[in-house]
Specification:
Elements: H1 21-44, H2 49-95, H3 97-110, H4 115-126, H5 129-141, H6 151-167, H7 171-174, H8 180-202, H9 206-234
Helix pairs in contact: 1-2, 1-6, 1-8, 1-9, 2-3, 2-5, 2-6, 3-4, 8-9
InterPro entries: Ccc1_fam
Main location: membrane
Membrane topology: Multi-pass membrane protein
């Protein structure tokens, strides 16, 4: 069977603009690592299962809200910065179209395009102001002004995925179990599955992605468990 070239297929590249995938991935990973480490820390201190559930739930709610607000602010600020740069480039194109066309040609020449061809294409682009603006922004800023991520989508994605990730290590307690080891095992499984799922977008081996995330989250859990055990045994820092 003859394979259709990727260039002839629509959407043959993954979404790398960061609209929803990045906050979803970071949200889920942060939710898992944060609550696994939190539960390990308080559990290591010898508190009751009820206290662990209360602590984990508070961590879920506070973390999800913080992630959503942070993601919204980050994406909106980035979009506003890009909009300001686009407006600046628009003014330059209106005031100095010849100089801007030469700047665009020089960029292409530096990448190996013949000078006469680069100048010819830049002049052709200059005759279409909106296309010229888009081309200058893409070449000079490395962004597409028409494909900026939605801050609300990023915030909602981050909120939901953090909540789901943070809920995983709490599930055994919510179903009546009282074993810290079981909760951490659930969290470890969630880390492995999340890491393996992300590998689908990065072309890594699924088990490599899963193990990497498991090791990173496990290191955080061990650190907080040891701190919790130390404080719990010593009766506090004060």
């Amino acid at each position: 069977m003859t394979e259709t070239p990727a260039a002839l297929r629509e959407h043959h590249h993954a979404d790398v603009s960061g609209g929803w995938l990045r906050p979803a991935v970071f949200g889920a990973m942060d939710g898992l690592v944060t609550n696994i480490a939190l539960i390990a820390g308080v559990g290591g201190g010898g508190v009751s299962p009820r206290t662990i559930v209360l602590t984990g739930t508070a961590g879920l709610v506070a973390g999800a809200i913080s992630m959503a607000l942070g993601e919204y602010t980050s994406v909106r600020s980035a979009n506003e910065q890009i909009a300001a740069e686009v407006a600046k480039e628009r003014r330059e194109l209106e005031r100095h179209p010849e100089a801007e066309a030469r700047e665009l040609a020089d960029l292409w020449i530096a990448r190996g395009l013949p000078e006469d061809l680069a100048v010819q294409v830049a002049e052709a682009v200059r005759r279409h102001p909106e296309q010229a603006l888009r081309m200058h922004v893409q070449e000079e800023l490395g962004v597409n002004p028409d494909e900026q991520p939605n801050p609300w989508a990023a915030a909602l994605s981050s909120f939901l995925c953090f909540s789901v990730g943070a809920l995983v290590p709490l599930l055994p307690y919510l179903f009546g179990a009282t074993s810290l080891a079981l909760a951490l095992a659930f969290g470890g499984l969630g880390l492995f599955v999340a890491g393996a799922a992300v590998s689908r977008f990065t072309n890594r081996r699924w088990w490599t992605g899963g193990l990497r995330q498991l090791l990173l989250g496990g290191a955080a859990a061990v650190a907080t468990y040891l701190i919790g055990a130390l404080i719990g045994v010593s009766g506090g820092l004060g």
